[in-house]
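Title: Comparing notes on inverse folding

I've been comparing how different people in this forum approach sequence design from structure. To keep things fair, I'm posting one structure and asking everyone to reply with a full sequence. Here's the target:
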């Protein structure tokens, strides 16, 4: 059964989830970022592997969405 306590827990879990988007396509990064931010996720983005590595050196991400064909 999905009750109000579960909804509160999931909302807190989502709000505290930090996602990194790595893609050289700025439009796609913006689309994903806007969608995730509108759903209460904390989002960072990078356009290349070098910038992504710099972010990962200072932030622990819960999820990384990575374009491997950059």
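Reply #1:
Here's my take.
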């Amino acid at each position: 059964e999905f009750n109000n306590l579960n909804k509160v827990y999931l909302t807190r879990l989502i709000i505290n989830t930090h996602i990194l988007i790595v893609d050289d396509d700025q439009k796609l990064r913006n689309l994903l970022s806007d969608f995730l931010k509108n759903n209460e996720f904390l989002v960072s983005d990078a356009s290349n592997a070098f910038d992504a590595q710099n972010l990962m050196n200072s932030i622990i991400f819960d999820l990384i969405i990575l374009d491997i064909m950059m």
